[in-house]
Amino acid sequence: MNFSTFLAPRPLDAHPPMPVCPLEEKLFDHGLRRPAIVRAVLTDIFHGRLRAGQRLVTESLAARFGVSHTPIREALIELSGIGVVDLLPNRGALVRRVTARNVRDVCQVRQMLECEAARGAARRVERAHVETLAADIRALAAMRPNPEAVERARRLDDRLHDLVRESCGNMFLSEELSRLQTLFRTFRDVTWDLELARHDYHRIAVEAAEHLAICAALSVGDAQQAARAMTRHIRSGLTYWTQVTANLTELPNDGAAPVARS
Asked: pLDDT per residue over 213-253, tens digit each?
């Protein structure tokens, strides 16, 4: 999987249906069907619940999520466009193998796009929005590390990257970042899930410091410093993700999810 894999979409079925969970039902009740399906399938792939080469059955997915085939097909097309599913004539959708190299490739693309967005945002962002966000990040850093702090950290990470994207001043750059953000955030969330299982919360403080450095550059309009701070943040995230996911075992033959080595 290379740079072009993630930037160019490609033009769907013997996996047993998975149960619909209340969270999934809630998401689909609010008009977020396709993005929620994409995120759920990505999470299953990264956790090993869906294996490389496995076919994705539209009927099973539709039953799982309680939707028609249309949003399922739309979600599979999006998953194909970001490089984790192959759509093959007369064979349907097949899960692709995701490797550490794939994650590095994604982060390389993300670094190029988000650093350019940070430069643009430094010149255009509303300073009051940056200050409010920075205050919330400082409040997070002062919290006792626990699962609630992790959820807050995820929301603040979303807010920061959304603020940069929406303030960059380049519609096409903003749209490309928006198209890929589900992939970025699913990487992040799967990694957090693994760390939560180990009760490891050290990343909260590290990420808060990185976010505050970006905010500091944005608040004074320093485009180059904003890009440098964003580069450090993304590279740090890549190091963190690869260290955590490197401890996963190979998927066993019975299809169970992978487990972390101690």
From this structure: 999 999 999 999 999 999 999 999 888 887 776 654 333 33
One of 3.20.20.70, 1.10.600.10, 3.30.70.270, 1.20.120.530 is the CATH number of 100-245, namely 1.20.120.530
Q: State the Cα–Cα distance between residues 223 and 245, nearest whole angstrom.
A: 33
CA distances from 13 to 57, 60, 69, 73 (A): 3, 8, 12, 11
What percent of the chain shows pLDDT beyond 70? 81
Q: What is the pLDDT of residues 42-54, one digit of tens each?
A: 889 888 888 899 9
| Crossing angle for the helix pair 202-219 and 147-166, to the nearest 10 degrees | 30
Token pair of 226 as six digits: 């904003």
How confident is the model at residue 246, as a pLDDT? Answer: 67
Sign of the dihedral through C-alpha 254, 255, 259, 261: positive
Question: In the chain, where does the domain assigned CATH 1.10.10.10 lie?
Answer: 3-95
Give tens-digit pLDDT for 106-143: 889 999 999 999 999 999 999 999 999 999 999 999 99
CATH topology of domain 3-95: Arc Repressor Mutant, subunit A (1.10.10)
Query: Torsion-angle region of residue 67: left (phi > 0), alpha (psi -120 to 50) or beta?
Result: beta
Residue with tokens 């007369």: 90
Question: Would you give the DSSP letter of residue 49?
Answer: S
